Amino acid sequence: MRYDNTINLISKIREISSMFIISELEKLGIKGIVPSHGDIIVTLIKHGELTMTEIAEKINKDRSTVTTLVKKLNKIGFTATKKNESDQRSNFVFLTPKGKELEEGFNQISEKLYDIQFKGVKEEEKEIFRNVLIKIYNNFKEEK
């Protein structure tokens, strides 16, 4: 039997980085948001208004999961929805003025996160690391 703790280590990194993000959000006075909400907010910052399906594709999550997350973001006032005039079956999601105010804080947190995760890591090591992670991800995706 071969044993390797790579997946466990990735899980631990995800957990501790999520705790870091939540702590940084709290320091900035941003309440009610967790890292899974951040994916949606960052995507809307980059792309403007999008449908639930477009968001789901861009952040690689189920549409139903995105719908649940967006409902929470709507409830706390960071996003809103409006009917898609060209397709009445779908809605556009967009950042409210309150949601747009998150951009600067999110940028600060992203910079800190990047600096921490790659402290002492050379550029060529980063490239190799990312390539290996992509291969591992694709291996699991093929098995799905």
TrEMBL record:
Pfam families noted in UniProt: MarR
Sorted UniProt keywords: DNA-binding, Transcription, Transcription regulation
Signal peptide limits: none
Domain HTH marR-type positions: 1-138
Taxonomic superkingdom: Bacteria
Name by which UniProt lists this protein: MarR family transcriptional regulator
Species: Psychrilyobacter piezotolerans
